[in-house]
Amino acid sequence: MMTVKEISELTGISVRTLHCYDEIGLFTPTEKSEAGYRLYDDKALEDLQQILFFREFDIPLKEIKAVMENPDLDRNQILQMQKNMLVAKKTRMERLISSIDDILKGENKMDFAVFSKTEIEEMFQAMLEHMPEDMKEISIREFGSIEQWKEHYMEVVSREEMQKSYAKMIEWYGGKEEYLSTVKNPVSKEVADSYAKRIEVILEKMITKIGCPVDSFEVKELVAEYGFVMKQFSQMKEERGMMLSVAHSYQDSMVKSKIDEKYGEGAADFFTEAIEAFYK
After folding, report:
1. Cα(20)–Cα(187) distance, rounded to whole angstroms?
2. Best label site of 53, 167, 190, 194, fewest CB within 10 Å?
């Protein structure tokens, strides 16, 4: 058995943080001594290690607790999830380090390519197969032919700024294969419509709280529900990055105008502040 102080020295986590983890039920002691000191066994240390892996990605403690307590996930599944997330992050870091090395050598170029030409072609084909016929016809008329449309798609997706965006998305999904699998197997239109209605209901509830502090329980509860629905809909491993991106999108002039028109003046700013407060 180890004491809080010994675990703190071993892991570098402050005693205060460990006490906080105990208070919220995230990392509880195996038992307590007669004097009331917290004591932890080897199994508890394994749990703490998994918690620290998740914290590497700044995942909220509440989300970590939900994953750790999920009866449908065993230890190996959680470790595999964390491995996929770390591998995706490692790949991105190695690519950036390699690019910096090139700059230091005088080769002032940075390669942010995430998907190969073959993978981009597969993404286009998946989009084509699952797109409603009316939308497909509109796009074909706009570009002249499927081949011209595909050429445009390949050019846009291959751009540096798009590849940077995809690098972030791969982290959100837990790996490239997970992201491509979602692209190739999207939810049906009926399911998408159902999720869209759920999100609209949540936003309508949120706007009734516009006078409340963004860190109040009633606002945080609705943001948590919003994030949960978005996570289910997008089939992501972790929704934090996506939700912060959604919050940022509400500040786009066109989006902000439409949101304020639909939900009332100040709605877009309130949604942004509430989401950022919850996830940051």
Report:
1. 39
2. 190
Show the 3-state SS of the chain: CEEHHHHHHHHCCCHHHHHHHHHCCCCCCCEECCCCCEEECHHHHHHHHHHHHHHCCCCCHHHHHHHHCCCCCCHHHHHHHHHHHHHHHHHHHHHHHHHHHHHHCCCCCCCCCCCCHHHHHHHHHHHHHHCCHHHHHHHHHHHCCHHHHHHHHHHHHCCHHHHHHHHHHHHHHCCHHHHHHHHHCCCCHHHHHHHHHHHHHHHHHHHCCCCCCCCCHHHHHHHHHHHHHHHHHHCCCCCHHHHHHHHHHCCCHHHHHHHHHHHCCCHHHHHHHHHHHHHC
pLDDT at 113 (0 to 100): 62
Q: d(Cα 194, Cα 108) in Å, to the nearest integer?
A: 48
Q: Do the Cβ atoms of 188 and 195 come closer than 8 Å?
A: no
Contact 89, 57 (CB under 8 A): yes
Q: Which contiguous run of DSSP H or E holds residue 35?
A: none
Strands of 31-32's sheet in order across:
2-3, 38-40, 31-32
> Using one digit for the tens of pLDDT, what is the confidence trace for 85-100?
777 677 767 767 876 7
pTM: 0.48
Provide the pLDDT for residue 226. 92
What number is the average pLDDT over the span 44-70? 82
Token pair for 217? 């329980």
Does residue 46 surpass a pLDDT of 70? yes
**What pLDDT sits at residue 110?**
44
DSSP letter string, 176-192:
HHHHHHHHHSPPPHHHH
